[in-house]
Known about the structure:
Elements (H helix, E strand, L loop, with lengths): L33 H8 L3 H24 L5 H21 L10 H27 L2 H8 L1 H14 L5 H28 L4 H39 L3 H23 L4 H7 L5 H28 L2 H10 L1 H11 L6 H26 L15 H10 L2
Amino acid sequence: MADGKKTDDYDSRDTGSAGKSYEPLISTTRSGGSAPIVAATNNPVFPILSYCGSSILMTVTNKYVLSGFGFNLNFFLLAVQSVVCVVAIQMCKSTGIITYRDFNTDEARKWFPVSLLLIGTIYTSTKALQFLSIPVYTIFKNLTIILIAYGEVLWFGGSVTGMALFSFGLMVFSSVIAAWADIQHALQSYGHSETEASAKVSTLNAGYMWMMFNCICSAAYVLGMRKRIKLTNFKDFDTMFYNNVLSIPILLIASFLLEDWSSTNINTNFPPLQRNRIILAMIFSGLSSVFISYTSAWCVRVTSSTTYSMVGALNKLPIALSGLVFFDAPITIPSVSAIGVGFVSGIVYTLAKVKQSAKPKGGILPTTTVPMSASSQSARDSFKS
């Protein structure tokens, strides 16, 4: 599956990496000419660029599949991505590159509710990305941060500082600008035909509705995962493995029951001339989730959780710009302004969380901050990115 999950704020296949310490996932203790390899893997430039590249790859490939040829087999797409992800990490485990727990029925039962929330998150993400451009999708995804922040205040005794509130205001403002720019561009482009203009606006409204559902599901997934992770003490690749394994049967059943598998619709989704490219893009989008998880761990290991958080905020800009480069997203002053404001809001929020972590203060909201255990704090830090 792909979320756009850490597209934006989270990669839905892993729990995030900030605030954790990682050992090298690939052995760097070989003798001989291993010194240049060690130096390269410990250079922060490579993991940062790799993380940014994998994020862009997943977003662009998903957008290519979902909007290029009238694709409507969303559940099937997610099932294929999950299968690819499980096969890829199992191969990595077999070769000793990564490690994670073997499947356990009791742990699967405890984690199953989180997997259901993940399916809702990923499905609504694909629907929103199908109707909206990548820049607008990326901007609106910031609103999930607000829901998570207030969820932490309500259920985990968190706090929101004035600087964080300011960043929330910028996030909402950027979303309003993006929506207004989209609607204005639709009206101007199809103004000669009232029917076409109305159809385009209706498409955008559908995208905004799916985006709203996605923000709610994403916040519920992250907050629910925070509760459940205490019961299992999962690490990143444990979470990725269980998320995908538990999702595969549900996605396949949903696809066969709810989606159109007639020969006509299959040919619509996989046109003969583009079939191989679409299948390859589906496989790539599944692999990219593995790349994101690995490069996230790599980035934190050779830099710091603060640097990783900042990279996550800065990464929104190239992801949004990729929509302008690879697709026909409208390039107007309002749309570019929305990207800029959204980018700044991410930077302000990251700085606010860094400042809050460095010097804890009472929140603006009327709530009592409850002391947290080390494991809870680690889980919370992983969600900040």
